[in-house]
From TrEMBL:
Signal peptide span: none
Keywords for this protein: GTP-binding, Nucleotide-binding, tRNA processing
The protein's name: GTP-binding protein TrmE N-terminal domain-containing protein
Gene Ontology MF term list: GTP binding
Keyword flag tRNA processing: yes
Family: Belongs to the TRAFAC class TrmE-Era-EngA-EngB-Septin-like GTPase superfamily. TrmE GTPase family.
One Gene Ontology term, aspect cellular component: mitochondrion
Location within or outside the cell: Mitochondrion
Length: 199
């Protein structure tokens, strides 16, 4: 077995410290900087900042379904089916926008948790109003940078090589970088390592 190695991956997507010991590949000790409890429900603008046609706001955590029910004043839509709904302020009941709502019950979601997306008009005022409405819900907080990926890693939805591939894909500027990062995000590098491990 290989001797103990300490690998430090420092991404703008997320900062991850990994301590890899001479253990089977399924056993991994790791710790995250600014580690936070997954008991909270997090939200963030997952599309780009600035004016755009559509903005995507992602929510993940145990109260994700509550975000849909309380902000749309309606029941949960069918899982993984887009539904047009009015989004309202949870205190004033003012209509903030009309947008598409998608519901992803865990564990069949990116993070492995209950998750949902609000696809709203991309004006800064609309996005700000929806984020403010979410901030008024008890148990909700803004996501830290890379926290959705962090939760996916904790849930076993991504391994370390896939996390690295995702970070590279986000920062890819050339076609070659895009292809390489996408293959790694799809697990090709992990499969190669598994092959080496069996030799």
């Amino acid at each position: 077995m290989a001797c103990a190695k300490l690998c430090l991956f420092n991404y703008s997507l997320m900062q991850l410290k990994v301590l890899r010991l001479s253990l089977p590949s399924t056993q991994l000790l790791f710790s995250f900087r600014n580690n936070s409890s997954s008991a909270s429900t997090i939200y963030a603008l997952s599309s780009g900042h600035g004016k755009c046609g559509v903005a995507v706001i992602r929510i993940s955590g145990p109260k994700a379904s509550e975000a849909i029910v309380r902000i749309t004043r309606n029941s949960l839509p069918q899982p993984r089916h887009a539904m047009l709904r009015r989004l309202k302020d949870t205190v004033t009941n003012e209509t903030l926008d009309k947008g598409l709502i998608l519901w992803f019950p865990g564990p069949k979601s990116f993070t492995g948790e209950d998750s949902c997306e609000f696809q709203v008009h991309g004006g800064p005022a609309v996005v700000s109003a929806v984020l403010t409405a979410l901030s008024k819900l008890p148990g909700f907080r803004p996501a830290e940078p890379g926290e959705f990926t962090k939760r996916a890693f904790h849930a076993g939805k991504l391994d370390l090589t896939e996390v690295e591939g995702l970070a590279d894909l986000i920062h890819a500027e050339t076609e070659a970088q895009r292809k390489q990062a996408f293959l790694q995000m799809e697990g090709n590098l992990r499969q190669l390592y598994d092959t080496w491990r069996q030799i």
